[in-house]
Amino acid sequence: xxxxxxxxxxxxxxxxxxxxxxxxxxxxxxxxxxxxxxxxxxxxxxxxxxxxxxxxxxxxxxxxxxxxxxxxxxxxxxxxxxxxxxxxxxxxxxxxxxxxxxxxxxxxxxxxxxxxxxxxxxxxxxxxxxxxxxxxxxxxxxxxxxxxxxxxxxxxxxxxxxxxxxxxxxxxxxxxxxxxxxxxxxxxxxxxxxxxxxxxxxxxxxxxxxxxxxxxxxxxxxxx
Length: 224
Fold this sequence. Notes:
Blueprint: E1 9-15, H1 19-30, E2 38-43, H2 50-54, E3 62-66, H3 72-82, E4 87-90, E5 95-96, H4 101-109, E6 114-124, H5 131-148, H6 150-153, E7 166-168, H7 170-175, H8 187-195, E8 200-211, H9 213-218, H10 220-223
Parallel strand pairs: 1-2, 1-4, 2-3, 6-8
Antiparallel strand pairs: 4-7, 5-8, 6-7
């Protein structure tokens, strides 16, 4: 793989009833410096104001795509198929990214051996920061592939989840078949397992913040 020379980053945001957090996420994405090449919101027929929020600022570079199938893997594949940038970056609707996201991705992909990467996810809420779960997720990025796919770990496999803002080269994404549309969950980990066939996966030493709403709803055991 050749290094990405310009790093036009296509940000893809899959949504389903994300009205509570989407505005903050989009506000952060619109302030990126340098800016994203495009922001694509792929909505799975939300029943709340998600679509209206995505369309709210006509002057902002946000494209709203309606997807008839309510499944994150399908929605992200739809966004990737429509993206025109040099890099695909998948951001959940309740996740906040650093202002220099594009520059960080560019610097990471200057290494031609790296085809994909992600960030350290800090799980936060209105009342607390989930330090323990955040630490466990960081460790799991390394220990899960080392324990269960050691041969791939030494080839560069790192286990990333959607909360970690996965980015990758479009060529590698296409070559490995993208997200498995039949998977309702764990589609991100499955993608990493196949992406490593194209090159190394890198965990960037920077933090993104994601909502703790699933932890609050499911409890710690299911989130781990």
